Amino acid sequence: MSFIEERLLESLSYGFSGGPTWATNIVTLRSGISRRNVRRDRPLHRFRGSFDRRQEADIQTLLGAFNATAGAAYGFRFKNPLEYQAFDELIGVGTGVEQDLQLVRSYVFGPNTRTVSVRKPNSDVVVRNLETGAVVASSVDTTTGIVTLTAPPGDRLSWTGTFDLPVTFDSDEFVAVIENWDATTVDISLSEDLAA
Question: What is the torsional sign of CA 13, 18, 22, 25?
Answer without folding.
Answer: negative
